[in-house]
Amino acid sequence: MNHLAPYRIAFVGLKPGKHDFQMEVDKLFFESFPHAETDEIFGNLSVTLDKLGSRIYCVADFEGFAKLPCDRCLEPVNVKLTFSERLIVQLGELTDTDEEIWTLGPECHELDISQPVFEWLHLNLPSRRLHEEQDECDPEVMDFLVDGSTRTSTDLHGSSGDSGKDEDSDIDPRWNALKDLK
């Protein structure tokens, strides 16, 4: 089953004017995009096509949420995600979807907006993803962040617990010459 079929809109039979389409974004949508940052974005996409002669103005409004790891504790957090994006399509001789204004050739009979929707979803993800309240974070991780490690023999990087003291005997003699430059 093709999960991207709802994102292909046949525009050839559409009369001039506005046309509304509703689409649902869920895990099935992301099965076609294996390199997604997350596949847990859920919500409703409302697409309005305004066909005017040889141009089609597409406005996509999304409202939903993304389930992402918290930047503080790495536990899942639901982040509200809303955006409105637009796409301008013109009918022409050659198909070109690399520019800001797409050109669709005479062989195209439908508008596939799955790739732009995928990109819009990722571009609108917040750069900072935190639980609204610090109390919602994993208490064990929060204790670690506040108190530091309870380890005595090694730190997070696995080095020995020598308190950061330099011992001249362990230093390569070539580096000792640099100490004289002070």
Explain what this protein looks like in three dimensions.
The structure is a single chain. By secondary structure, this protein is of the alpha+beta class. The chain has one domain. Helices cover 16% and strands 34% of the residues. The protein has four helices and seven strands, in the order E-E-H-E-E-E-E-E-H-H-H. It has a five-stranded mixed beta sheet. Strand 4 and strand 5 form a beta hairpin. It is elongated, with a radius of gyration of 27 Å. About 5% of the residues have low confidence.
How are the elements arranged and paired?
Layout: E1 8-10, E2 17-25, H1 27-30, E3 41-52, E4 55-69, E5 76-91, E6 101-104, E7 110-112, H2 114-123, H3 139-147, H4 173-179
Parallel strand pairs: 5-6
Antiparallel strand pairs: 1-7, 2-3, 3-4, 4-5
Biggest β-sheet: count, sense, barrel?
Answer: 5 strands, mixed
Catalogue the unreliable spans.
152-160
Strand order of the largest sheet: 2-3-4-5-6
Helix content: 10-25%
**Pairing-aware structural class of the strands and helices?**
alpha+beta
How many beta-strand runs?
7
What is the overall number of helices?
A: 4
Mean pLDDT: 83
The tally of structural domains comes to 1
Report the principal-axis shape.
elongated
What fraction of the residues are assigned to beta strands by DSSP? Answer: 25-35%
Radius of gyration: 27 Å
Q: What is the H-and-E element order?
A: EEHEEEEEHHH
Distance between the first and last residues' Cα: 71 Å
